[in-house]
């Protein structure tokens, strides 16, 4: 299908008749058209999350209703729209999702009646599991890992040992769910799945940045931990190394499908350079735990241990800086888009004022002005 279906148009007309602007916008964002949701509809829904007189539960429930559709296109776009609002909407949207006992129950979803239905249904099931995990993470820690303050004075770098050991596995679970999307370049074949992949890519960057900072904090605290804490921390660190490899594979897919290489963090310093997740660091961590357990251990001088730890932390810090560059680029892009939007509104206003000057035809002014106003403000055109 190349455009809106008759069903889409009828549904939009019904919402227009009932006066439900939110339902109409959701309908427009989740049409049968095989392309990502249109920016103007997403922007309108983001605006709705910031309006106190808009019911967030109603907005979320409308999206949930769209995932009950039999078409993979509609369901996928409903998930993409939900994800977009979780990322860019008011925080009360993700708060509401996190408060629900269940979100998306699409583990058995299968569209047998459409071209690409079987393949896309697989990714819908995986994508919905990630969104469920993202909401669960928020419920458990009351913060979105992709939005938390980062840097040397950030949340993960300043977290105490006990809380850190409880929080890092939650990040691990969310990252696992994201990387389980497992799309290769040959499967990213249409605008719908590409839109989902782009959101997952952006989440992966910010999620791993928080994860990375938590591990830096963990390593800096390791040699002062109690025995049980060291055991947990060592397990977390080993899992981190494995996930770093998995993320590197995910980023290779992003590069192959045309995402600007400047937006893709460089993990080579951490995974292939002098750091190489050094066996000396892992050995030092394991030997320290063994000593706390009363086992015979290899001697590590304080200087050797300090130098090994410093090298690892420095490499991970460089990785973190690489991940931060994409955030800065997106912030700059958002600022430029906002400035362009404000300039367009200003130009439109000046145009309307010009149309109301005495030189214009008195009989044509009201109709022309009204038409311009409606076309510029209606998010559903």
H and E order = HHHHHHHHHHHHHHH
Outline, from the CA principal axes?
Answer: elongated
Uncertain parts: 15-19, 269-276, 361-378
N- and C-termini, Cα separation: 19 Å
How many strands?
Answer: 0
Strand content: under 5%
* Average pLDDT: 83
| Main sheet attributes: strand count, strand direction, barrel closure | none
Q: Return the structural class.
A: mainly alpha
Roughly how much helix do the residues carry, as a percent range? Answer: 55-70%
| DSSP summary: helix tally | 15
From the alpha carbons, calculate the radius of gyration and give it in angstroms.
25 Å
What would you note in describing this structure?
Helix 2 (21-29) runs antiparallel to helix 3 (39-49), helix 3 packs across helix 5 and helix 10 (191-222) packs antiparallel against helix 11 (227-256). The two termini are 19 Å apart. The protein is mainly α. The protein is built from 15 helices and no strands. The longest helix has 54 residues, at 302-355. It is elongated, with a radius of gyration of 25 Å. Residues 15-19, 269-276 and 361-378 have low confidence and may be disordered.
